[in-house]
Amino acid sequence: MRTQVGIVGAGPAGLTLAQLLHREGIESVVLEDRSREYVEQRIRAGVLEQGTVDLLVAAGVGDRLRREGLVHHGIELQFDGERHRIPLSDLTGGRTIVIYGQTEVVKDLVRARLEADLPLLFEAADVTVSDLDSERPRISFTHASRAHELECDVIAGCDGFHGVCRPSIPAGVLREYSREYPFGWLGILAAVAPSNDELIYAHHERGFALLSLRSPELCRLYIQCRPDEDLAAWSDERIWAELQLRLGLKGWTLAEGPVLEKGVTGMRSFVVEPMRYGRLFLAGDAAHIVPPTGAKGLNLALHDVRVLAEALVSWYETGSSALLDAYSEASLQRVWRAEHFSWWMTQMLHRSDGGDDFGLKLQLSQLRYVTTSTAAATSLAENYVGLEQV
Ligand code: FAD
Ligand code: PHB
Q1: Whole-angstrom Cα distance, residue 122 to residue 389?
Q2: Is the peptide bond before 12 cis (omega within 30 degrees of 0)?
């Protein structure tokens, strides 16, 4: 088997890259180790930046997103028993965010790929990448009990944080930067109308909480927990009670409903540089992770593949590798901006175990500053909706 671009991973990064390349007449094969059902049901992000929406629409997979996505113009920050609105659109010349689950983005991309009858192989096992520093990098894998070898011009490693591509790069090539956080998020999806029109990020002495949503009938809620929190210790009643305490406000009630899904996510910041080795290009979570507080992970993954697709188009059209050579540096500029913003939001809103009162006072001062100073609020807003130029 031969293709132009071998893509490992059918998450948002791999699927979007395949779609962008297809629109430019470049062939690719997408290999995914999980099943279609698994990939389409995996609940993760929910906030799309306007640039992400524009990219998906331009790529021809934005119809349902435009119909069903919920356009938001602001978010709320809650602390000290009060809620404060950050008017995102007013502060950013009218830019918005759109609430549309990652599950839906993935479903739309999978459908587009399969309807166009283009190669997307689920349950591809034993994927390995080799000859990365040659002009003919290869991917070997097993599919439907048969061994295959795929010869490529380039390989895109879009296989997430736990994938095989990044670890296939020889030792000493990549430099890693990381930070672990002493907490995680316990998240639920609940069948109940959201009690607020906009997202609420709540700072609370018991720990952070977030009210988000997926649709007018589906709520997505999170509470800060330990990174290794035992889900078994959290009955639905206990989760709702904790949410009521952390999100509760005089004169406002959080409506409860059946819990459809729950899970614990650890939090880390992680970046590798460069995002390339020979003919292997890393994109999305394969190259970087952000804590979810800034809602940046999915948006960053799609920005990477937009830059990568443009570089590949230029390479195939002109023979010049200038843009491919610039890919890592160009992507990393935005990556580091998002890393900083996500870290900053995280440290402002979470309670650190053993956190001293000095830290708490600094958080409250920072929160008061971003909710009273237009300059500070604008900085938060432009990062949250996604900077146009980074
Ligand atoms: P992924 O979505 O991880 O896709 C990688 C794909 O590669 C997967 O389908 C995987 O099955 C496949 N793969 C892995 N190994 C192999 C292999 N060896 N061979 C073939 N395929 C392979 N971001 C937010 O903004 N908000 C959130 O609430 C949020 N919650 C998250 C919760 C969890 C548990 C995780 C892990 C991430 C969360 N994120 C969140 C981050 C966001 O979902 C990611 O940034 C986004 O999924 C990145 O897309 P990606 O395509 O780069 O990687
Ligand atoms: C979500 O809806 O899942 C969500 C929203 C905002 C975040 C993180 C996750 O910062």
Answers
A1: 36
A2: no
Centre of ligand 1 to C-alpha 107, Å, is 14
Taking phi over 0 as left and psi of -120 to 50 as alpha, with beta for the rest, 199 belongs to beta
- Whether the CB of 198 sits within 6 Å of ligand 1: no
Q: For ligand 1, is residue 168 a contact (CB within 6 Å)?
A: no
Strands 154-157 and 5-8: what pairing?
parallel
Per-residue pLDDT tens digits for 153-195: 999 999 999 999 999 999 999 999 999 999 999 999 999 999 9
Task: Report pLDDT digits (tens) over 115-168.
Answer: 999 999 999 999 999 999 999 999 999 999 999 999 999 999 999 999 999 999
Its sign, for the CA torsion 112, 117, 122, 125, is negative
- The residues facing 121 across adjacent strands are 31
Residues 78 and 243: beta-carbon distance below 8 Å: no
Cβ-Cβ contacts under 8 Å for 28 (sequence gap 6 or more):
3, 4, 5, 6, 7, 17, 18, 21, 22, 118, 119, 156
Question: Side chain identity at 143, as an amino acid letter?
Answer: H
According to the model, what pLDDT value does residue 355 have? 67
Q: Is the CB of 298 under 6 A from ligand 1?
A: yes
Give the number of other CB atoms < 10 A from CB of residue 377. Answer: 21
> What are the catalytic residues?
72, 201, 292, 296, 384
376: helix, strand or coil? helix
Nearest CA to ligand 1 atom 46: 298
Residue 390 has pLDDT above 80, yes or no: no
Measured in whole angstroms, the distance separating CA 117 from the mean position of its chain's CA atoms is 27
